[in-house]
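User: I'm new to structure prediction. If I give you an amino acid sequence, what do you actually give back? Let's try with this one:
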Amino acid sequence: MSLKAYYLSPDGVMHRDLSKTKIKAAFQSKEGLLWVDIVETTEEDCEFLEQSFGFHKLAVEDCISQLIHPPKIDDFGDYIFITVHGINYTAESDIVQTAEMALFLGRHFVVSNHLLPLYSVEEVKQLVENDARPMKQGTDFLVHALVDALIDNVLPTIDKMTEVMEEIDEEVIHDPRQSTIEAILKLKRSTMQIHRVMAPQREVLNRMSRGDFQVVREEARIFYRDIYDHIVRIEDLNLSLRDMADNALATYLSSVANRQNETMKVLSMVAAIFLPLTLLAGIYGMNFENMPELKTSWGYFAVIGFIGFAILIIIWLFWSRKWINWGRPKVFRVRPFAVDRGKLRGYMGYFKVHRRPKA
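Assistant: Good question. You get back a string of structure tokens that encode the predicted 3D arrangement of the chain. For your 359 residues, that looks like this:
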């Protein structure tokens, strides 16, 4: 369990690392802006949320449940409960895994909950630590900052999947292997994972941008519309990748069939090479006395030399016509799936490049 709290008082003073008693007092004051972030939620945290904030039991149960909940938004009157998804960059897997973040948005408070560490949340925390900018414009803008960073961190995964898809396209044509079809199937499962959470999130952000909830002010709605546009773009790119994976799978099956044809061609070439040689060996294997080469000292070596020369000539002819691929360059195996974390919002390397200088 990790609980981090920030409180921006009405006079503009930022308070950090609040205890649970101070968190409850700040919430009950209904002034300023309170942000509480909870990681690795426990039963104790759930009791604290129910007793101190008065959140609905069903919403609190979603925060602690290990099950994956679809993106949604519920209106409880004084606050709204939002569930959104991003990418889980802590999981070591060749298949993209998603991470869930739950948000309670009220007039004077925001409570964010996630069972796994999220780089996007760490970025917003860093901005709050620097100048409290995400909290100065209100709770709806703070939630926008959290969701925007979460969605933006999906794009590096899409970019990496595109690179893997390009490698698969090369390999599936020139050198299809068992690892190729495994990479295709993993990519398809990754696109399904992303589609499963991105498609419902479009409706969540659409509702927040069109004024369905009073807690989201009119001046903030255009920013939620921007996140909605990002999700639409991600979904379009993801669907394109899924179509490319389907095409690659069809191409792989075709390539395997072509490889089988190549195998039959090799066997035919072997037969083509040895049939005339067998004929020659059969002729000189006959025991007729009037065969002049049988009585010469160089006859045996001449026949063996001619057989070897014929083999080389026939093989060279096949290779020059690209019927044989021995010695030709091959495409490297598809690399394992790994995102460049320096591109992620909230990753430490990102701060070193993008941190603003202090005045």
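You can read the tokens as a compact description of the fold. Here is one thing that stands out. Residues 218-284 form the longest helix (67 residues).
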